[in-house]
Amino acid sequence: MEYINTVGRRKTSVARLYMKPGKGNFTINGKKLDKYFASELLRLIVEQPLKLVDSLKNFDFKVNLHGGGLKGQAEAVRLAVARALVKNNDETRPVLKKEGFLTRDPRMVERKKYGRRKARRAFQWVKR
To answer: Which long-range CB contacts under 8 A does 100-105 form with residues at least 24 apart?
Structure first.
């Protein structure tokens, strides 16, 4: 079996994931998972779909990540992992769908408007 290729996105983060059968190695931008995501919470987010379908040690993952912050990147990788698991075995789809791992979170940062301090926040108004 060759690589399974999927994409996950969240906010401005994009994760391109390549999955193949292996021993559970996670490589993100050339670094190990625990080196790239130092926080235990972020590693937990990435591994959620794997733990749900009991495939934690069955596949090797190589991920190219760019854009956004660490939390958005972790959630982008989670979406890519879930999509790869469904591509590999279609029977995992209902379980992952029920937990919401196959849904792309559409929320993005609202753009800043002119004449405002932020997207909606106006400059402070002084009466006198």
So the answer is: 101/48, 101/49, 101/52, 104/8, 104/9, 104/10, 104/79, 105/10, 105/11, 105/75
